Amino acid sequence: MTEDHLNGHPRRWAALGVLSLTLVAVTLDNSVLNTALPSLARDLHATTSDLQWITDAYTLIFASALILAGAFGTRLGMRRALIGGLVVFGGGSVAAALSDTPTQLIAWRAVMGLGAAFVMPATLAIVTRMFPPHERAKAFGAWSAAAGVGVLVGPVTGGALLLHFSWSSTFWINLPIVALALAGILAVIPRIPAQPSGRLDLLGALLSTLAIAALVDAIIEAPQRGWTDATTLGETGTAVLLAAVFVWWELRVTNPLVRLDLFTNRRFELASLALAVTFFALFGTLFELSQYLQLVHGYSPLLAGLGAVPFAIAMSVASATSSLTTARLGTARALTLGLLLVAAGLGALATATTDTTFPVIAGFTAIVGLGMGMLMAPASLEINGSVPATYASMASSLQSVIRELGGVLGIAVVGAIVSTHYRATMADAPSVAGHDLPSAHAVAAATPAPGAGELLATADHAFTVAMGRGLLVAAGVALVAAIGVGVGLRRRPTPGSVPTGVAEPEAVLAG
Q1: What is the tens place of the pLDDT at every residue in 361-404?
Q2: Helix (H, G, I), strand (E, B) or coil at 53
Q3: What is the secondary structure of 232-278 as a DSSP string?
């Protein structure tokens, strides 16, 4: 592909529309699935741990494979990587729809995550390649808004499907979107030559994948095993050890999977922190909120899905206008204000009770969406603008890893806090009702009145209080990150803060 440095590729705006559609395809799935969690718990007899892994299998493999997928994409050509990733994602969706046990569904969700891992960095790298420097802020804003569209369409679509079909329809819906995206790619995305560059760091990929898997499994299973259980402590120690070996290896290998010295650039580091914390809060919140709306309030899947509409609209509008906001406030203030809004929205949401009305919940989630939309595009632009053009693909992969790893940890950590508090409160509950909220509702359905009503009231209250605890933790993390980003980005760079070969953004993005 040839690129006019000053004017960009002539089909760049049509290409951006197609790339945004591919982003909707891979972000729609998780938002649809959140609506289907109670149905999965009922139809597949899935426990809370199963539900966490059904959600996390996708994001775990996605996050673990992103950097390696980006490296393969550079060698194969980003257009081929995009097509191949969508084909794998679509095939995994078919198999997931046909699953009849939680284990099968977890496995096929992992396959879908592998396909998505090739899609995400390819879209970012192609946007960077096709757009000239002066248009990239708008392009990243539109790209970020597409994520809001995925969140908007997902819950509503999932809710509408679940009114008439089983949970498997939430996977079948991926196929027409993938087909449209593939047709658009073939029509308007130009061929991008492969760029072979040394041997792939397979050991680095293995070490990072195992470290992330061990940590996430330890956090998800800790409420059931116990936080001081030997397996929990062993997995946590293994994760720390593998992460240390990964860092040691990456600093010594000739062609590292990750240029760790990029993180010595304060702009790169703090923008990455903003993205990680935002997705930590988002994924952790949506996982619990779906159960709260459908089980505690008894809303239908469609109405519960509509609860995400204010969030998604606020996020999409803020993302689409983020270039104007950032131009007025500056990157540091935009990122700081965005994180403060996320923290404020989560803090407000943590005050919800079993009687809090639907409009109030929707309003609180809209505040979170506004903050997310305000910071996603400038954070992405800051990350890509902090590295030389040689590392554009790596930077695209890294920011996708950062987002998804934040999401994985959000589901795991917030879910673990909620599960631990719920189990402690419901320790004297009958049968398996003390394990999780779906189990409590299942037990209540088979319990004669008035015992059923008492059990439901106790379980719903316990879960709501537990959810509030989890959301307060997420809000606190966002608040601390806001302070760190605000202070860090306003300080002048110290000598050596930009690693060797990492130029300022104007020089970086000129190539």
Answers
A1: 989 989 998 998 888 888 877 877 766 666 666 676 677 677 77
A2: helix
A3: HHHHHHHHHHHHHHHHHHHTTSSS-SS-GGGGGSHHHHHHHHHHHHH
DSSP 297: S
| Residue 332 to residues 287, 336, 401, Cα–Cα distance (Å) | 30, 6, 22
**Using alpha carbons only, how large is the chain's radius of gyration in Å?**
22
Q: What are 25-74's pLDDT values in tens digits? A: 887 776 677 778 778 888 888 887 788 788 778 877 876 777 777 777 77
Side-chain-side CA neighbours of 149 within 13 Å: the count stands at: 15
Give the pLDDT band of residue 95 (cuts 50, 70, 90). Answer: very high
> At a CB cut-off of 8 Å and minimum separation 6, what does 333 contact?
486
User: How many Å separate Cα 484 from the centre of its chain?
Assistant: 22
Please give the structure tokens belonging to residue 510: 């000129």
In degrees, rounded to 5, the angle at the alpha carbon of residue 402 between the alpha carbons of residues 414 and 227 is: 35
CA separation for the pair 285, 305 (Å, rounded): 14
Burial 256-282, CB ≥16 within 10 A → b, else e: bbbbebbebbbbbbbbbbbbbbbbbbb
Q: Is 223 helix (H, G, I), strand (E, B) or coil?
A: helix
Task: Give pLDDT, residue 1.
Answer: 46
